[in-house]
Specification:
single chain; 269 residues; alpha/beta; Rossmann fold
Length: 269
């Protein structure tokens, strides 16, 4: 019964996401995870960082040979993710404090639009490296900008003038449990995002784009209803990721000769 509920919710969610380029990278993630699953005999352990309402589960939930674990900062998001009935466990975690898992706990980590909110993105990436098994894969989806430093300065300036009460900037406030959402504090360029991932000892195997605009303009959302527009944007963004507004960086943890597998007991707790 649980499986039928999960599959039903997943199908309904995917139908709602079909015309939104914002979710175009999820089918890519699904196919990649399925390929990884077919190469091994044991279930894949996938950590969904910043799982939100469980969008990844909408695409990957109900698939045999794959165990999903989700973490997020906000309880309301975790409640929505739980309704997908696809996660083995859902935990409220503040990445500023690290990850509550043993080393080598996961085969795949998906980090979806999270790094831009963190004051310690370097430390978070090192935590991802730690909890991945040897040769495990990391998928980082994040917006990029041609002028990240200028945007960052402008953001800090406007935040001093006005800060929404329901949002929180994790670099200057600590009472995050009373907020509803995080405030973006870091802007990345194509190069700076890739360099930060490499600095955590990951080996980047692919970088691809999925959107050309962040769709702040209503007209852009209307255009997404047309198949020709979606196909054009996806084709151009994939071919020229440096000019995309959102990119997915695929990397893996380098295999160390003679490394011993680590305990998974804490991850299952």
């Amino acid at each position: 019964m649980k499986k039928n509920i999960s599959i039903g919710i997943a199908r309904k969610a995917k139908e709602g996401f079909a015309n939104r380029l914002k979710f175009a990278h999820f089918p890519f993630l699904r196919e990649t995870i399925l390929r990884e699953r077919r190469t091994g005999s044991v279930p894949l352990r996938v950590l969904d960082v910043g799982c939100g309402p469980g969008t990844l589960a909408s695409f990957c939930g109900g698939q045999g040979g794959c165990s999903l674990f989700g973490i997020d900062l906000w309880p309301n998001q975790l409640m929505q993710a739980a309704e997908k009935h696809s996660y083995e466990a859902l935990l409220q975690v503040n990445l500023v404090n690290g990850l509550p898992f043993s080393s080598g706990s996961f085969d795949i980590i998906v980090c979806n639009e999270v790094l831009m909110y963190l004051p310690n993105a370097d430390a978070a990436l090192k935590e991802f490296y730690r909890v991945l098994r040897e040769d495990g894969k990391l998928f980082v989806y994040n917006p990029i900008n041609r002028l990240p430093k200028l945007c960052s300065i402008a953001k800090r300036f406007t935040r001093r003038i006005y800060q929404e009460q329901e949002s929180i900037a994790l670099d200057v406030q600590s009472n995050w449990k009373q907020a509803e959402r995080a405030c973006r504090i870091t802007y990345y360029s194509f190069q700076s995002l890739n360099e930060q991932i490499r600095s955590a000892s990951f080996h980047i195997s692919d970088t691809t784009g999925f959107r050309l605009f962040r769709n702040r303009i209503r007209l852009m959302k209307v255009l997404e209803n047309y198949t020709w527009y979606r196909r054009l944007v996806l084709a151009v963004a994939a071919r020229y990721p440096r000019f995309a507004s959102d990119i997915l960086v695929v990397s893996h943890k380098k295999t160390v000769a003679g490394a011993q597998p680590m305990s998974l007991d804490k991850a299952a707790a």
